[in-house]
Structures are given as C-alpha cells and as structure tokens.
Amino acid sequence: MNENNRLIEAFKQTNYQVAGNGIRDIQVLKEALRNYEGHQESDIYGKGKIIEDFQKKMAEYLGKEDAVFFPSGTMAQQIALRIWCDHEGVSKVAYHPLCHLEIHEEEGLKELHHIEPVLLADKSRLIQFEDVVNMGEGVACLLLELPQREIGGQLPDYQMLEAISAYCHEKGIKLHLDGARLFEILPYYKKSAAEICELFDSVYVSFYKGIGGIAGAILAGDKGFTKESKVWKRRYGGDLISLYPYIISADYYFNKRINKMKMYHEEAKELAGLFNQCHGISTKPVEPVSNMFHVYINSPKEKMESILIDIYEKTGIGLTGYLREIEAEACFYEVSIGDQFGNIPKEGLIKVFQMLDESMKKIKE
Amino acid sequence: MNENNRLIEAFKQTNYQVAGNGIRDIQVLKEALRNYEGHQESDIYGKGKIIEDFQKKMAEYLGKEDAVFFPSGTMAQQIALRIWCDHEGVSKVAYHPLCHLEIHEEEGLKELHHIEPVLLADKSRLIQFEDVVNMGEGVACLLLELPQREIGGQLPDYQMLEAISAYCHEKGIKLHLDGARLFEILPYYKKSAAEICELFDSVYVSFYKGIGGIAGAILAGDKGFTKESKVWKRRYGGDLISLYPYIISADYYFNKRINKMKMYHEEAKELAGLFNQCHGISTKPVEPVSNMFHVYINSPKEKMESILIDIYEKTGIGLTGYLREIEAEACFYEVSIGDQFGNIPKEGLIKVFQMLDESMKKIKE
C-alpha cells in the first residue's frame, strides 16, 4: 500500500473526523428519502411538482425570477456563459485562472462552445476591481466565484463586490456568480443570499458542498435566461426523465443545514486558530470567511503522512484523508467544516494539536 | 379541465393498466434501495466499487471491452458520434430521420458539435442496406436504432443487420447502436446482447425503458473509445460526484426484469392481436418484435378520449393516458409492455376490447 492509501485508510479508521458531514454513502440518500412515504410522483423531463416546487423555493431564496435544477454545476455554468455570449454575439468571458471551468472541466467551455476566457488576476490572489476595469473589450460575461475555493476560500470586501457589479452593469457586461459555496459565506457578509445575488445577472449554487446533498445544482436568473437554459439542458442530456433523487436530497439537506452555516464558520475559525498555533503550519486565509480553508504545512508530504497516521491511531481523531505536495518540502490540504466537527471531544482535539505541534517542532530540529 | 387532462386523470383512477411497470414515483427508488443496507460508499466522480462493478457487468453482458455509466442516453450518444467523427476528421454522421438526436435533443449534436447528419430512409420505414450503400462519402458513423421506436418499434431482418455491419466495416464507417430498447428485442432475434453488439463499434443501452429503472445509460465499446468518452462526460458536466441513485436502481431493475423480456414480447403480441381485431384500429408493427408497438385509431382524438374514459370507468382497466392526433380523423399512441400486463384479469381485458370494438363500430355508422 502506498503512503496515500495508508493515510486514507488510517483516516477511515478514526472515530471522529474534523471536517465534513460524514461519509458519502447510500445512507445519505436513505435518510433524505425517509421523509417521503407514499407515492409522490417523479418529475418527468423537468416538469412536475417535485422539481417545480424546489425550483420555486430556490428562486425565492436567491431573489431571482426563476430557477432551474441541473444535474451539475459544470453543466449549469457552461450554459450560463454560453447564453450571455450569445446575447452579446461574442465568444469571450472573463474569470479567475483557478476557476472551475478552467481547471476541472477538461476544457468543456472551449471544446463545446469555442468560448475563450480572459483570465483575470493571478493564481495567488482574488480578482480586484482594477482587474475588471483593465480586462479589455468584448467580454460578454464576468464570472466571480464566492468564495474563491482554490485559494482557500477567499472573499473580496463587499464594497469591492458592489463596485464590480456597478461597473459591469454600466458597461453592459453580464455578471455571473459561481456560488458553489454561496450559502457558506452568508454569515461572513451578514447578507441574505438574495441581497448578494441582486448584484449578479445569473447565479449557480450547489447542494453537495456545505449542504451535503448527493449532487445537483440550481441555476437562477430572469425568466428569459432560465427558459434558454432549459433548451441547453436538453441539448446537454441533462434534462433527465427523473432528477428526483438529487432534488429530494438537495431539499432535505438544505432544510437541515442552511441555518448551520454560521456555526460552521465559527468552528472553521476555531480550527484554523489551532492550526496557526502549530510550528510550521498556517492556514489560508488566516481567518476563514466561510466553512473552508487550506492548511499549509512546511514538511515533506511523506513525512507528514506518517505523523498524521500516528496521531489518528493514538487519538482516534482524523484531520484529513489526503495531502497534496506543493514542493518537495511542503504540502497542503483543504478543510470544509460540517456536522462532524461538533462531535469531537474537546480534550481529544487539544491532544491532536499538541501532538501535531510537537511533531512539527521535531522536523525543524 | 381539457380533454387531455380528463384522459390522464381517468387513466390514473383505473385499478389496472395494460402497459408499463407502474407509476414512476419515489417507491421505485425506495424498492431498489431496500437491498442496500449498511454503509456502501458512493461512487466519486466516476470511480469506486459501485460504478466500476456495474460498468464491468454491463461490458461483459454487451460483449464489449469496457463500459461507462452516463446520466443520459442523449449525452452518451452525442459523445459517441463526436468521438467517431474526430477519429475520421470529419463532421458527418448518418441516421434515421426520426432518430432521437434529430427530434428530441433540441439540435444538441449540431449546436454543441457542429456535426451534420445525413438522414437515411424516410420517416415511414426502416433504413435498408441500399440506403447505407447510397448514403455518399464522408460519413464517420452510422447510427442504427434497434428497434426503431418512432415507427412503432420495427426491426430489420438479422441478415440485413449483418450485411450493413459488414459493409460499414469494409468501408471504415463506424457503426453505433442506439440500443435504448436492446434488451427488449433479444427474444425476437433469438440472440444474446453480445452477439448483436458484436456487429457494432459502440453501443448505448438505457435502464428506464423495459428495465424500468429511474434514469441512466451505459455506453460501451473498446477501451480507447470509453476512455475518450469519459473526458467528454466530464466536459458535459455528466461526471457527477455521485451517480449511485441511478446505478443502484439500474442494477436492481436489470436483475429483476432482464429475464422477463420474452414474456413482455409474448404479451405485446397478444395485446396487439386484440387491437387488430377491433374495427378501425390497427397496430404498427402488426406483430410486435419487442415489448412495444403503436396503436393507430381511425377516430378523431376527442371522440376517442371520451370512449376510452367511458371504458376505464366501467372496467377499471386503463389502456393509455394520452392520445396524439395524426390528422383530424385519426390518432395514435405508444404501448410498452411491462410488469403490469400480467396483473389484468382476463375477463376484464376481454370486456375492454368488446366495448372498444362496439364503440368503434358505432363511429363508423
């Protein structure tokens, strides 16, 4: 077994895990279905009570005219950008170099739509107002991801967001929100989802990040936009005869967790604080603005895996199931707080960080 | 309430329905999940035991090197045609004018891939060997749908199929099988799925037609083909973090119904025989070659709806929930036999067809 497998196996053996809502297994679906007795009918190709009710609920929550349930955010966001490009008659959008569309979708936007992105900012920082002003002509749509996941989940000041929105509105540039983790940032901004979404022409949200559902996404905007998006959903093969397994679980876990986002944020700040007290470890951001952050460790990956496995075995508490190498001498991983953090015995957590700090000190020596 | 709604409402009130496997409701999912106790882990972005086991099982069943689970056939088939076009460096495929890609996908193949189809045969008949020979140069892939659903589920002779396959193989034209209803035709051809699939380079099968699952499809072929298809699946946003609700139900209902296809076929022939004995009603094909056929009725749609509602109310047996107008004086609908046919009391069924025949005679007078 290689080191990677050893770490994930040791992690799975722990009694408590610091992050997440638990194992992604079929019990997640069974729990959501428990509330649905009787013979509630399936949605059929985008129609029917089960899908229409949820779309209406999410449109209201996001303060948009209409909303469409999609099997995935990948599908929903490519479609959003295509629609805005078609409206402007151009094939250019702008987003961050670590945007999901740029690094996780096998060039889908380019291969399927021949849309070329302008990459704003650089990989290490957020898009700023100046980046937007200087992005050049001919951009149909700017996509902003809140929070910017690949740099630890960072957020611009709300005033910056308002300024970007006003500028785009003035220039006729559509503004699209990659809100994969929108629910998770509401406590930090102290805004409602609708208040934030009002700054954007179209919005995507996900139900398997902080919400902890199975899969699925909502794309919201005005009625003309959502109507077009349904045509594209059919073209993509996303207009499934039945999406209800995802819709039921999205709705169930939305109701279960939407009011826990403030708690997750507080717990993320607490946990990040513990990491930042350890030698050779820091978090990005230093103070989380959502339920997520990245942990940066000044230690070679293999050495750190052995240290973690030892801690897991001695405390029964797991921090992460993987580490990713940055350079030969450092590694990092991502944390997203969910229901599991609250279950950890405090004395156990203190012990974990004592052991971690001591091990890191030994590496330095 | 308009006539359409009256018919579907009356149909839903019946105790027995002649076609299908029952209402598409959440109990379909709950039944499939009942076998899965414990903590079986989700598939994660196309990996994991739950998806890999099913893909392997279906690859073996179809006699192909490899298989990939897709959320939909729309997605799977566009991708298959794109891959074959890329291999040949052309943008032309051939299929029937009533092919799913031509009439049910909002021009997805053209809008997403700029692939132009050559339409073979005409809307009223099957593609013949001569159509293939005369289709012209530059076609990367020929798609054959077995059975051809939109003309009642018709099939070419097996010898014709072999001749088309041999011709395409010789000419270097890829042959793709739209096997949405492949399982359903095995009893007629008296062939295994693998024997039929051997004639094709790539194959798609569906799990919510005769199998009666929730949604989902398998695309099978050689390993180079399936590897490419996974890249496109990611591009489409079809590589969901979890597809297990569809996989579990596909597997469960495949096991439950795959051996019932011969029975469904026999029952379809019996039912078609009953229709063909009625005045002014005929089926296409006259003798079904699968579990499906179309019912053609020489009566205006509205009049026929009233007749059917009367029959449903008096017998408690429902034939169909909809009728589609052909011309002012005729209408038709589609029948697919499933588990429900066997539950109907024989004397009730006889009564239904007596009433139907008498009503049709009165229309004539």
UniProtKB/TrEMBL annotation, chains A, B:
Any idea where the Aromatic amino acid beta-eliminating lyase/threonine aldolase domain is? Answer: 41-295
Signal peptide segment: none
Read off the Gene3D superfamilies from this record: Aspartate Aminotransferase, domain 1 (3.90.1150.10), Type I PLP-dependent aspartate aminotransferase-like (Major domain) (3.40.640.10)
- Give yes or no: UniProt keyword Iron-sulfur: no
Keywords associated with the record: Pyridoxal phosphate
Query: PANTHER family from the xrefs?
Result: L-THREONINE ALDOLASE, L-THREONINE ALDOLASE-RELATED
Q: What is this protein called?
A: Threonine aldolase
User: Source species, please?
Assistant: Rossellomorea pakistanensis
